[in-house]
Amino acid sequence: MVRSFCPKCGNDADVFYDNVCHQCFIGNKKLLGSPQIVYGRICPTCGSVFRKGRWQIGGKEEDTVNSFVKENLELNRDAKSVELVLTPKQLDYSRYKVHVEAKGEIKGAPIDAVIDTEVRISWETCDTCSRISGGYFEGIVQIRADKRLPTHEELKRCVAIAEGVAARSQEKGDKLAFIARTEELPEGIDIYVGLIKLGKQICRAVMDTFGGKITESPKLVGQKNGVDLYRITYALRLPEFVRGDIINVDGTVIEVQGCGKHVSGIELETGKRFMENFNDLMDVKKLSRRDDAVSAVLVADEGKTIQVLDPHTYETVTVRRPEFLSVEPGNEIKIVKTENGIFVLP
Ligand SMILES: [Zn+2]
Ligand SMILES: [Zn+2]
After folding, report:
1. Which ligand is nearest to the CA of 25?
2. What does the DSSP assignment read for 141-152?
3. Mean pLDDT confidence for 263-285
4. Is 325:285 a contact under the CB 8 Å cutoff?
5. For the segment 328-340, what is each residue's pLDDT rounded down to a tens digit?
6. Considering the domain boundaries, does residue 176 fall inside one?
7. What's the total number of domains in the chain?
8. pLDDT at 68
9. Nearest listed ligand to the Cα of residue 125
10. Does 19 fall in a domain?
11. Ligand 1 centroid from CA 195, angstroms
12. Ligand 2 centroid to 42 CA: how many Å?
């Protein structure tokens, strides 16, 4: 291999950049620069970061600190394939020292740099957090049930649904989509929301699961920059009937499997499936619940009818044989006793 000399410094070299050796080429070139001190604003409550004139969702504190440094790095315009390693070290509650190691190349010549920058955090409460702490809300979702009290289970699920909807909206950047507070009442639960839109979304999601209906009542609460400000109350009523209710629908006794816009279930006398639009039903009455079922002995199976021993009167009762029955005589089945007679449960 032929050794060559650098025409600039006269040293031996085997690789040349712009006809000079690596050292001469890199010379005073700087891969990157940074201000000695970098400033940033973070919300101490939610970690939001003030960036480009507005509050934006932040991440882990160290990641945010690193991002402040990166945003302020001045990278050599000719540099390519730059790799950065940032190591933040907390000095006190509002100061970090960030050690930056950088590697890259300029016209193929490797170049690196090491810089230390100080980050100073100004802790400021963001718009959303100040609204939250100020008790701000735009809507109330009042969850009740029609002609009954909502069950504890239903309310728990409603709150979980509401929290899920709020979290998804916040992930999409709707920072005001927060739940300000929830109030448990004997008749249901009130969910206070930071955004009208969120109230509506929660209602829709709850109704997707449970059915029910809502009425909206807006109330003028003031003005801002000449625009009327409203607060909306969504009164949501969960359906009267829930899964497991035994109801009489226009003369047919069914066990409810779902109740929303439609009532679905099993016709207990025949075992056939039942599905009707709730509003088309004329006369609906609750008779019993699956939880009230008792065990009874199946005495005989006569094909079209069966005989059941009433566990209370010890009388043998003949009822129509439902399609779903698969138990042999002599075994126990679940029955409900209602004002319309005895019914076998699937
Ligand atoms: Zn040289
Ligand atoms: Zn905040």
Report:
1. 1
2. EEEEETTBPPPH
3. 88
4. no
5. 999 999 999 999 8
6. yes
7. 3
8. 96
9. 2
10. no
11. 66
12. 8
Contact 98, 84 (CB under 8 A): no
Q: CA-CA distance, 83 to 206, in Å (whole number)?
A: 48
What pLDDT, on the 0 to 100 scale, is given for residue 2?
Answer: 60
Whole-number pLDDT of residue 242: 85
Ligand 1 mean position to 31 CA, how many Å? 19
Give the mean pLDDT of 253-280: 88
- Whether 84 and 115 map to the same domain: the answer is yes
Judgement on whether residues 250 and 334 belong to the same structural domain of the protein:
yes
Distance 101 CA to ligand 1 centre (A): 25
Q: CA 123, CA 21: separation in Å to the nearest integer?
A: 49
Q: For CA atoms 189, 193, 196, 199, give the dihedral sign.
A: negative
Residue 207: what are its φ and ψ, rounded to 5°?
Answer: -70, -30
CA of 15 to the centre of ligand 1 (A): 10
Boundary residue ending a domain (186, 213, 238): 238
Based on the domain organization, do 234 and 249 belong to the same domain?
A: no
Residues 91 and 154 placed together within one structural domain of the fold: no
Alpha-carbon gap, residue 26 to 106, rounded angstroms:
8
Same-domain check for residues 231 and 252 = no
HSE-CB at 43 with a 13 A cutoff on CA atoms is: 23
Same domain (yes/no): 141, 221: yes
pLDDT single digits (tens) 219-262: 888 887 777 888 999 999 998 888 899 999 988 999 999 887 78
- 208 and 259 housed in the same domain: no
**Structural domain of 301:** 245-344
User: Which segment of 166-175, 199-208, 303-312 scores lowest on mean pLDDT?
Assistant: 166-175
Asked if residue 315 belongs to a domain, the reply is: yes
- Same domain? For 121 and 188 the reply is no
